[in-house]
Structures are given as C-alpha cells and as structure tokens.
Q: What sequence folds into this?
C-alpha cells in the first residue's frame, strides 16, 4: 500500500471516465442497434434548424420528443422553449437515456425510458393534458403500414387543436399514413444531412 506525505495509507482513486463525445456514442450504439437508430450519425445542424423552424415557439409550451438519441434536437428545443415550458423525451435506448439525464440538466426536461408509442398513458399519469408540439426522428420506414398508422394516430390524439407534429425521415414511406391522419401535411427537403432528409409538418 502506498502512503502519502503524512504517512497515511493512500488509496488510488480510479480516474473518472470522461463521457464519450455524443457523435461517437451515437455511432457505437448504432453498431449494436442499427434498426432502432436508423442512422449512423446524429442529425446535422442544418436538419435540426429546418425541423425547429417549423414551430411557432411563442405558442409552444408542452413538447414531446420521440427518439432524442444523444440530444441533438433536445438542447436546441430547450433553447427555444420558454421558462414555463416542459419537454418530455421518450427514448428506448438505455445508453441514450443515461447520457441525456447526465448531460442535459434542465428542470424543464423529463427523460423517459419508454417507447414513444406509450406516450399517451405516460403523459396521462403525469397529469399532462395535451401537447402543443410532437417532434420525432424515429425511423418509421421499418414499421408495417398498420404499425405506422397506429403510432401516428396515437400521436395525433395527444395534440391539442392547432397542435403540430413534425417528423423527419430519410424516405417518404410514412406520407400516406400522415395524410390519412392529419388534415394538412407540408413537406420540406434538407440536403445537408447524412442521409438527406425530408421534414413533414403535420397540422391538426
Ligand atoms: C434516427 S435516431 C434520431 C436521434 C436524434 N433525434 C437525432 O436526430 O440525431 C432515432 C432515435 O429513436 C430512438 N427510438 C427508436 N424507436 C423508438 C421508440 N419507439 N420510442 C422512443 N425512441 C425510439 C432510437 O433509440 C434513436 O435514439
């Protein structure tokens, strides 16, 4: 046993592990769960700003984020959300859940280790009535049509009248289901992302 300058036994303190940079954590997790993540790197800042530009922030207080990953949109959402707002982030991957909880300490943010398909009962338990904005980057192209329709209809039921769903995807495969559930769907395209992505703004 080593002793310190006072002759006391000194225990070696293991060095605290530094958290992995978010992009590296995302890539490593992708190798384990490629279908759940759907992308090898997080969204680009161009895509983040195109998604968040769809939102009328002064009228937005309650936000649900489906599939926040390493928080690429979570931080920018919190920057735009007022002090009385709240953000409920539903993430299935436990590594991302721990990362978000430790790296984004913000009292407006609640990170839930639950599927975004369960958002209805989870919000109900917490006394959240209706949602102003739901943002999702969950890959929908891998789901069956029926599963996609059911997920989109669930999300629609959470929104207040005038509420908005904004989703971003690499394909247009979810468009028929979005159009079935929402009165109006507007599309934009963001080329500066790996892969280039489509943004769908769905209005109730
Ligand atoms: C393409 S990544 C998007 C990550 C991040 N939002 C971004 O834009 O960089 C999809 C994320 O959705 C999560 N996910 C997939 N299915 C989910 C579900 N049913 N409920 C909640 N999260 C889910 C994955 O774990 C992953 O973090």
A:
């Amino acid at each position: 046993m080593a002793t310190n300058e006072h002759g006391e036994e000194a225990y070696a303190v293991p060095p605290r592990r530094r958290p992995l940079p978010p992009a590296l954590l995302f890539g490593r997790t992708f190798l384990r769960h490629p279908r759940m993540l759907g992308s090898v790197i997080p969204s680009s800042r161009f895509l983040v700003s195109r998604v968040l530009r769809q939102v009328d922030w002064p009228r937005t207080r309650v936000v649900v984020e489906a599939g926040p990953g390493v928080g690429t949109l979570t931080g920018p959402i919190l920057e735009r959300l007022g002090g009385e707002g709240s953000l409920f982030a539903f993430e299935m991957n436990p590594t991302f859940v721990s990362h978000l909880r430790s790296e984004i300490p913000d009292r407006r943010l609640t990170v839930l280790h639950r599927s975004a398909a369960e958002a209805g009962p989870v919000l109900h338990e917490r006394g959240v009535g209706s949602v102003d904005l739901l943002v999702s980057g969950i890959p929908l192209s891998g789901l069956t049509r029926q599963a996609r329709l059911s997920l989109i209809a669930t999300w629609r039921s959470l929104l207040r009248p005038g509420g908005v769903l904004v989703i971003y995807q690499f394909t247009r495969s979810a468009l028929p289901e979005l159009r079935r559930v929402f009165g109006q769907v507007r599309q934009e395209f963001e080329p500066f992302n790996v892969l280039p992505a489509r943004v769908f703004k769905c209005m109730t």
